[in-house]
Design a protein that fits this description.
The chain starts with a strand and ends with a strand. 57% of the residues lie in helices and 13% in strands. With 214 residues, it is of the alpha/beta class. It has 9 helices and 6 strands. Strand 5, helix 9 and strand 6 form a beta-alpha-beta unit. The relative contact order is 0.18.
């Protein structure tokens, strides 16, 4: 039976890398986040208040199209970030920090709710939980100039909202991966543990929160 897995996590958590590794190990088709394609992203990092709404609507549009496409894909799929966290973490954070007006937030939220009700949920969400220092190290390592200036406070705000979102997410089971101590790139054992945990959770979707053990 086809499976749909979402990989969630903050900027620099290692989602794209893990998506590729999981796709290879599990035989799933990967669906990546369109970072380079967003024409507003560089402007957004330069002036969040001016470009927040535009950037988030782009992401929501693209991810809705991607979500629809992966539903039609006959293969099992693993997706790099979902429309759920786009709205309930990133867009919400921009609104709370005053970078998205109440009017824009209301319009965006209504659009998101309409779209989310029409799309089937994933079978499993894998959440990469990482502290701000870990995120900062990984952001520096991948060397994207526009991300270098992201304040620690912005990353911390996203982490807080990610935890709230995960605690309240009821559409699918959630597998939490402790990203500070599991190096799934350098340590093959860590990757094996994650793969086995995902396979176990996909066989048993009764629970809601499963931390990965060592």
């Amino acid at each position: 039976m086809k499976k749909y897995v979402v990989l969630a996590g903050n900027i620099g958590a290692g989602k794209s890398t893990l998506v590729g590794l999981l796709a290879e190990r599990l035989g799933f088709r990967p669906y990546y986040e369109p970072v380079a394609e967003n024409p507003y992203l560089a402007d957004f990092y330069g002036d969040m208040k001016r470009w927040a709404f535009n950037s988030q609507v782009f992401f929501l549009t693209h991810r809705t199209r991607s979500h629809r496409a992966l539903m039609d894909d006959p293969w099992s799929v693993v997706q790099d970030r979902s429309l759920y966290e786009d709205a309930l973490v990133f867009a919400r954070n921009l609104h709370e920090q005053g970078n998205m007006s109440d009017q824009d937030w209301g319009t965006y939220s209504e659009l998101y709710r309409t779209v989310a009700e029409l799309l089937p949920p994933p079978d499993l969400v894998v959440y990469l939980r990482c502290s701000v220092p870990t995120l900062r190290k990984r952001i520096a390592k991948r060397g994207r100039e526009m991300e270098a200036a992201i304040p620690d406070e912005y990353l911390a705000g996203l982490n807080r909202l990610y935890e709230e979102w995960i605690d309240n997410f009821e559409l699918a089971p959630v597998l939490v991966v402790p990203g500070d101590r599991l190096d799934f790139v350098a340590e093959s054992r860590a990757l094996r543990n994650i793969v086995h945990a995902i396979e176990d959770r996909l066989r048993d979707k009764q629970g809601s929160l499963f931390p990965v053990g060592m």
